[in-house]
Request: fold
Amino acid sequence: MENMTRIIIDTDIGDDIDDAYAIALAVKMQKFDILGVTTVYRNSEQRAKIASALLTALGRGDVGVYAGRDYPYKEKFRIEDFEETLPDGRPVIPHYFEEFGSAPVRSQGAAEFIAEQAEKFPGEIVVVAIGPLTNLAEVCQKYPAAFAKLNRIVCMGGAFSGEKAEWNIRCDPEAAAAVLGSGVPISFVGLDVTAHTYLNGKDVQEVTSGKGEAFGLLNKMLGKWMDSHPGRNPTMHDALTVAEVVGGFCRYDERRIEIPLEGNERACTCTTQDPSAPLVVCAVSVDRPAFMHFFKGTLLQPVMI
Reply:
């Protein structure tokens, strides 16, 4: 796969709907050598089966899926009112359907897989982090030499125009702080930018108009999300992050960032003048019309199975 960027997608697919569309976009863009998909947070095994079923429907059942960590390092995870729970207290992931039970998931753990691939392709792999950063923190702590061989991390995370703690960082601030301080280059595509990628009614009609198994699955997941989030627009936070691996829709600044672990600013991505703080790249704006045209046009390409 010459001239293709090697990526691993680390995702909490199955709660919000944008992770599923991000994976579909990654497949449809045909610019990536997708080495694998890893799952994280609350019930990684069910998330892995969702990702596996989706990849199969997209004609990419050859891409391995690896379940990762369920529990954050310190933070307790939240159970929504509409969610069922398992006897051990973990939730049934909202977009997990019974037919996904037989979807294949690799036996190797997510952290081990990421470390193995980093050693195999030193300096080449971009991790597209579209969930809490727990898996990546585990790689950083258990396999620091391998972690240092990642090319970079493109992260849907943070909020940089206010004092709000964004979801993926807030779910496991300790993990996010560890990854931020690891020395691996990070590009943040934050909430204040991704919030502009909402789908209005016309957009939803367009993205649900496709035919075939993959669209049937995406439409079923989107329908369940919309039923449990009435009045909200589905927003393609993670799909924009995938697109930004090759870039073209966002404008960026360099900033020094810290993630406080105590007090009112816990889990916030705070800009600081401290010269010892990590220097990262942060998206500061997005060309919404250009991205939405690209997203819908790429998703609806007829090659989708």
Observations:
- The radius of gyration is 18 Å.
- Residues 5-299 form a domain with the Inosine-uridine Nucleoside N-ribohydrolase; Chain A fold (CATH 3.90.245.10).
